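#struct-help
A.M.: can someone run this one for me? Single chain, 252 residues.
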Amino acid sequence: MIKVFSLIGSCAGERSQTAQLSDRLAEAFRKRAAEDGETVAYERLTAAEVRVDFCRGCCNCFHRCFCPLDSKDDMGMIRQKMRDCDVLFFGSPVYMGRMSGFTKCLLDRLAGDSHRLTLLGKPMLQFMTTESNHGLEASEDLEYILRFFCSALINVGALYRVGHPNLNDEVDMQPVLTETAEKLLRAYYDPRTAITEFQQRAFFSRVLMTRRAIRLGTGNSEAQAIHEAGFDRYVLLSEAIENLCMRKKESQ
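D.P.: on it. Structure tokens below:
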């Protein structure tokens, strides 16, 4: 069974365009996966259903590998669901030309996870909804941040209520749903198909910093966590995915 977890950065909840798009993408993925004999379990959370406090800048996530706020809001639960799922959806509406405030708040709280590469190789689907403009800029902004997780990132881009692709037009939507489901299933089978050169450089930079910290004995808990996970044994992100993530999946 493929476990899909969807995080939607809209306080409009399940009636939001972004939540509805998530459901349509999940259904398209379920149908495509069924053709290969796979079953899909889908769970969606919106900003209306959870409480996530703003990052306090204490840097505990970097130096001690935990966030003290996790025990006070819902972030600990969200973080665990993100790690446990097989495929992660990340959706946001466009507010003031960029991602929603909740989405940015969530990403701020995930900074430590991006440094420790806890989502390395995990297939991640990114999408945005907007009325008629700023979709491209907002989508590029979100994609730039998500690439640092070194996940198998698939960017659906922005879909519009007025424009193309149009959320309310089945003719416009069907190619998007079909293509996305195909890419996502391919990434699930082999995450290496959806990594970029940018992610490769980001991964190697983290590896070099970790190796240096371990060698000099100056590493904090973050560097130790990367070392214990075995990520610093590799030069190429594709190698790390093949030897760690794919072997883990094969053993399940």
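A.M.: thanks! The first strand starts at residue 2 and ends at 8.
D.P.: also worth noting: Strands lie at 2-8, 40-46, 87-95, 98-99, 123-130, 152-160.
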